[in-house]
Amino acid sequence: MSRFNIIFKQYIQYYLYLLIILGILYLIIPRPFILGLIIGACGSLVNTYIFESYLARSMKHDTTHVATGSTWRYAVAIITCLLWFFCKEHINIIGVLIGLMISYIVIILRPLLQRE
After folding, report:
1. Mean pLDDT, the chain, integer
2. Which of 21, 64, 81, 115 is most buried, by CB atoms within 10 Å?
3. Rg of the chain's alpha carbons, rounded to an integer?
């Protein structure tokens, strides 16, 4: 199994735990903030996948340019915020923003999480 798959499966595991906890919490306490966190965390999972796949692709080629898929990650954030825009009464934007920030925290902490 490639190193990329091992690392990304660890991230998926953490995201799935978070989404399960948030889903249970939403079933117990149905609040727009929690639904926003769920939607933001889903967008964050997609953003992490995009970042990791672009990073793995750029490490294979001998180039000086390292692509991280920023344009696609911005597109995911915009789509997530558009989802909030069309369902304002059911989704809290603060929850969406905090959920989306999870991927950026993971990207920043990536070197610390990967210590070998």
Report:
1. 84
2. 81
3. 15
Q: What is the DSSP string of the chain?
A: --HHHHHHHHHHHHHHHHHHHHHHHHHHS--HHHHHHHHHHHHHHHHHHHHHHHHHHHHHS--S-----HHHHHHHHHHHHHHHHHTTTT--HHHHHHHHHHHHHHHHHHHHHT--
Closest C-alpha among 15, 21, 17 to residue 46? 15
Q: Are 36 and 95 in contact (CB under 8 A)?
A: yes
Q: What are phi and psi of 25, to 5 degrees?
A: -60, -40
Q: CA nearest 52: which of 28, 73, 29, 80?
A: 73
**Tens digit of pLDDT for each residue in 31-85?**
999 999 999 999 999 988 888 888 777 777 666 677 777 889 899 999 999 999 9
